[in-house]
Write a structure and sequence with these properties.
The protein starts with 7 loop residues before the first helix and ends in a 12-residue tail after the last helix. It is an alpha/beta fold and about 625 residues long. It has a seven-stranded mixed sheet, with helices on both faces. Among the domains are: about 170 residues, Rossmann fold; about 100 residues, GMP Synthetase, Chain A, domain 3, CATH 3.30.300. The longest helix is centred in the N-terminal third of the chain and has 17 residues.
Length: about 625
């Protein structure tokens, strides 16, 4: 891909320079100075950041690097909730608002840091009472409500490993994540509410735990009146907390103790359980929340993600709360009850930092400028983007219409595996539409060819990270070989699986995935999972799926299906297959198109060549097909 890239896309882009006051007032200020300091002594850089947090006992060593395994802050003891809650309560933020939640119909709930700590402690004690202990895994499958955050923090409080599953997944996907993680408890709700409609979550859990032998209890947040009946080994979220003390000493955790497992789609086989640990993740998310987002004490921070994804873990819960921010969350969608939903909330709540996905930005563009123009967005100080590349057209619209041509855009690149921001354009630095930006201080990134050689500016290649960082994954749960593959695909570096272009002055443009993951509306969907869901239908013999560019979603899913003998193609069967995928994996994984075919392109070893299908679909050269079977 390096030979035919149009260099004009890299060099001939407009540059936007923010008001110098942004750099002057930012926590970090001078990007180049900070980056040079990091390169001069990486361990000293990270030690300085770590010392801004509270530790039960200090580290013996900042980093131990035994390729491809890293340990950070070795020997240190901590509990992340003590940094997210106690240190603020013990300081000057006891009565500061930590969390604001808005539901449909205008319902609002507010938690100060003291109230949030009390609720977390009571629920943590309730979990301990039913037998949850340090090292046990708890699956959390909930809507975006305060109780979801309380459950996560309560697990962290007692040293339980949480595995949060996005509430849009179906029963089969949830079952896989419960059983793979050996979850002892599942925490859910009776319903989630979306666009005025109640979606039954508990019914999905009921089906998902049928063959989940490790599950001892299901905890249910009952939102509807009258309350849904509970069965044996099912407990009510708030009834569990009755009589529980609001004091719960935080479990002493080693810096390298497992913190959480978060499943992300893999290019082959089942989803990968990404394992993050306590100390390095805490430092990485705190650092990026403070110094990349530039969160100040008077900011109200709104990240529109869900805690079922890494963005919600890092930039709804742990990072902003460690900084002591006021976090806003909402169950509302951007187009309900009307297309002014988000802009109304920004005006009403005086949001200062707004972090959303390119899919949402493109949706806003489609709805037109008249909607945001109805509202006062002057409170916005910083606007951000996450989840997939922010295309130049969306950047221009976001900057002009929402940022009023004054607000810096943080177009952030990172992954579930990285745990924290890795590449962006720092506050006050010149912004180039289409470019995420440069590696942040603390991160060494590059664009290389397949042999690991750095490419020259104006050419493309594979995005890699050249050295370890604190918030990096430590392994893939029960499958360390998949972890090693990140570091061994190209020797000596972490290969992220994205194609990128190196621009001038070190700016990097992210083009998208190079492997078999499809990013649909900011959600990572594994081709293998969708294909497995299709093949589990009685009429399907074989299936392959690809991502197709989509103006709104970034990508849509197209499936190619070979039917079993005795089954004939029909529109009714297509609808049946779409419904089957919906009930198996959830609505986010439904194919937008299905083609019935007689055969699929495969290598001589039998591997489906999805890139050939994609090339045919896009009308482009499929590249090397020498391994294609006759």
């Amino acid at each position: 891909m390096t030979e035919d890239f149009d260099v004009r896309l890299v060099e001939d882009v407009k540059t936007y320079t923010p008001d110098p006051q942004y750099r002057k007032n930012a926590w970090m200020g001078d990007y180049q100075k900070a980056y040079d300091e990091f390169l001069a002594d990486p361990d000293a850089f990270w030690e300085k950041m770590a010392k801004e947090l509270d530790w039960i006992s200090p580290w013996d060593k900042v980093k131990e690097w035994n390729y491809p395994y890293a340990k950070w802050f070795t020997g240190a003891k901590l509990n992340i909730t003590a940094n997210c809650l106690d240190r603020h309560v013990n300081d000057t933020r006891r009565n500061k608002v930590a969390l604001i939640w808005r539901g449909e119909g205008g319902r609002e709930r507010i938690f100060t840091y003291q109230k949030l700590l009390s609720q977390v402690a009571r629920f943590a004690n309730a979990l301990r009472k039913i037998g949850v202990k340090k090292g046990d895994t708890v699956c959390i499958y909930m809507p975006l409500v305060p109780e979801q955050l309380i459950a996560m923090l309560a697990c962290a409080r007692i040293g339980a490993v949480h595995s949060v599953v996005f509430g849009g997944f179906g029963a089969a996907a949830l079952n896989m994540r419960i059983t793979d993680a050996d979850a002892k408890v599942v925490i859910t709700a009776d319903i989630t509410i979306r666009r005025g409609k109640a979606i039954q979550l508990k019914a999905i859990v009921d089906e998902a735990i049928i063959n989940a032998s490790t599950v001892e209890h299901v905890v249910v947040l009952r939102r509807r009146e009258p309350h849904v009946d509970l069965h044996e080994n099912e407990l009510d979220f708030y009834e569990m907390m009755d009589g529980m003390s609001d004091v719960c000493p935080p479990e002493v955790m080693d810096a390298e103790d497992p913190f959480f497992i978060l499943y992300t789609s893999g290019s082959t086989g089942k989803p990968k359980g990404i394992v993050h640990t306590c100390g390095g993740y805490m430092v990485g998310t705190y650092y990026t929340s403070k110094y990349i987002f530039d969160i100040k004490d008077n900011d109200t921070f709104w990240c529109t993600a869900d805690p079922g994804w890494i963005t919600g873990h890092s930039y709804i819960v742990y990072g902003p709360l460690a900084v002591g921010a006021t976090v806003f969350i909402s169950e509302l969608t951007p187009d309900y009850p009307d297309a002014g939903s988000y802009w109304n909330l920004i005006e009403e709540q005086k949001i200062t930092i707004f972090y959303t996905a390119p899919t949402a930005i493109r949706m806003f563009m489609k709805m037109g400028e008249s909607w945001p123009d109805k509202y006062d967005l002057s409170s916005l100080r910083i606007i951000g983007s996450v989840g997939e590349p922010l295309n130049p057209e969306a950047f221009e619209w976001y900057y002009r219409v929402i940022g009023k041509s004054r607000t810096p855009i943080l177009d952030t690149w990172w992954q579930t595996e990285t745990g924290m921001h890795m590449i962006t354009t720092m506050i006050g630095e010149p912004m180039r539409p289409g470019f995420a930006g440069k590696p942040i201080p603390g991160v060494e990134a590059d664009v290389v060819d397949k042999d690991g050689n750095s490419v020259k500016p104006g050419t493309g290649g594979l995005l890699v990270i050249k050295s370890p960082w604190p918030a990096m994954l430590r392994t893939v749960y029960k499958d360390d070989e998949r972890y090693r593959k990140y570091w061994e695909t190209i020797s000596g570096v972490y290969t992220v699986g994205d194609l990128a272009v190196k621009g001038k002055d070190g700016y990097i443009m992210i083009l998208g995935r190079s492997d078999d993951i499809i990013i649909v509306a900011g959600h990572n969907i594994g081709t293998a999972e969708v294909e497995s869901a299709l093949v589990s239908h009685h009429a399907v013999a074989e299936a392959a799926v690809i991502g197709k560019p989509d103006v709104m979603k970034g990508n849509s899913i197209k499936a190619f299906v070979i039917l079993r003998v005795g089954n004939n193609p029909s529109d009714r069967l297509k609808q049946d297959l779409m419904h089957h995928v919906r009930t198996t994996l959830g609505p986010i994984a439904i194919p937008h198109e299905i083609d019935f075919v007689d055969k699929l392109p495969k290598t001589r070893s039998g591997k489906i060549m999805r890139r050939v299908l994609k090339a045919q679909e896009m009308g482009i050269d499929p590249g090397d097909v020498s391994t294609l079977e006759e």
